[in-house]
Amino acid sequence: MRTKAMRMSTLFLRTLREDPADADVDSAKLLQRAGYVRKVAPGIFTWLPLGLKVLDKVQAVVREEINSIGAQEVHFPALLPREPYEATHRWEEYGENLFRLQDRHGADYLLAPTHEEMFTLLVKDMYSSYKDLPVVLYQIQTKYRDEFRPRAGLIRGREFIMKDAYSFTVDEEGLKKAYQDERGAYERIFKRLGVKYVIVHAVSGPMGGSESEEFLAPLPIGEDTFALAPSGKAWNVEALTTPRPEPVDYAETPAMQELDTPDSTTIDTLVERFNQLHPREDGRDWTAADTLKNLIVAVKHPADDDHPEGWRELVAVGLPGDRQVDMKRLEAQFAPAEIEEASEADLAAHPELVKGYIGPRVLGPQRSDTESAAHIRYFLDAHVAPGSAWVTGADAQGMHLANAVYGRDFQSDGVVEAAEVRHGDMSPDGSGPLSFERGVEIGQVFQLGLKYSDALGLKVLDRNGKAVPVWMGCYGIGISRVLACIAEMHHDDKGLAWPKAVAPAAVHVVATGKKQEAFDAAEKLVADLEDRGVEVIYDDRPKVSPGVKFKDAELIGVPLVAIAGRDTIANGTIEIRNRDGSDVQAVPADQAAQVIVDRIADLQ
Ligand code: ATP
Ligand code: MG
Hints:
The chain contains 15 helices and 32 strands. It is of the alpha+beta class. The protein has a six-stranded mixed beta sheet with strand order 1-29-28-30-31-32, sandwiched between helices. It starts with 5 loop residues before the first strand and ends with a helix. Adenosine-5'-triphosphate is lined by residues 114, 145, 147, 156-157, 160, 162, 441-444, 476, 478, 480-481.
């Protein structure tokens, strides 16, 4: 099919020599400088012709792969009424990130940040039998989120483009299959688009919710941190499980002792006191890693049948003194409950808790016979090995225990992930030490389960005529964010360097000099390429210097550059080279189109 070239003389484009003052990352600078987008307000951008070309290509790849797994495209409004979001509590839960507005009659509306409710209601509207399922629907739509800090250009916008897909199946097995299909499509999409990605386990296994994985583009400008194992497996820090330590044989461990440790309410002073007053017999010094600190936190449980207002529970967590607690990791263990530090009032209600000297003897199973105060469950961090001996609180001013053995002298109510994860910790799969990297979330696949079907009453009749709730999954890709990540990964200090799959054109033809022959040769080449269906940007501007033209070509970042100029006039050749200046070839003008077509075929 014939493809019309974009001529620089008429293309709606102005390249900029300077970076926009407020652009904070390379993709934001270059996409604006090279004339792909213009900023309207923080996190809000206008797409120019070149930008739309790339956007169309990204969307085409996404559509192709999502269609290939049998999903069907629909399109919802972005402007939605309040009621469905009220039913799922998200009208409130979304907080300040939600753009809310009113119509002329005072009715509440929102600009959708995501569309779970609408898809659920649509299927409820139209389907009623297990025979209708499975069905997977998707859209490519503009979303609105009033992000606290729009940043990095298109990467965190307030108006942005998302592909969101939703699967509806009659059972959990169907959901797992739909999830795998979608996950497979994501891998193909990101490979085709030239985006490096890491699949990160997003939800913790044992106590956490349903299965979810995030696709992160590993980029130092990213806001997400993930832990990477030598095997290539990766985890969100909140989802990371610590390999369980081997049990320690405590047959030789001396009996637990109560020891004086005046003024030692911190781990540092405790270690100092022990080294002064109770030196170890094996010659080494006590360190923070020998101590077990016990924190009291408040767990805020959501409403249930017995507690319509929710309820608050104090819980104790023991972890090695050389590690900090990671409240987000701990909270993930108690989801959907939230966690906060215990208040003075919480502690005052428990006189058995002696601040700075809290020990296991007043906690958990040790106190299940408690008299007055409510029972405080006691959880141990996963680093605490069964049989290991600790220095820990003795529940009296200035007193600590030594040789308190877990499993001999005290028990727990369970093991949790409470401690921070450190660079060098062993990875969950045992493949070696973890390292930390930063990334940008470009997609997420999520097994929602029954959350939305329950909230909105989406049921179908099963084989036996019984109404059952529908299993749902949701699957998002940030289309405009992915485009920016491609730019982030494919550029140099001179400009963008698009992979072939998304470049706005395959070749940038430049006519240089003042002589008409060069322009005639370029025109001929462009016509030839148009006939062959090659996408071309043609710099036909008569009065612009070669230097400016080459700079623009580098900035715009099309994979191949073809030059008609002095050499064309002198010996009838056209120069063909890659965007980065490599693989320079001088070919006779009448063969140039064929050489370009062949080189395009070889491009990545
Ligand atoms: P983040 O943690 O980065 O805020 P999210 O987890 O809230 O993202 P989802 O609700 O999972 O985002 O949305 C699906 C996809 O939409 C994300 O994986 C991401 O690629 C994209 N996305 C989310 N927020 C934005 C935004 N403000 N600008 C551009 N793309 C976004
Ligand atoms: Mg997400």
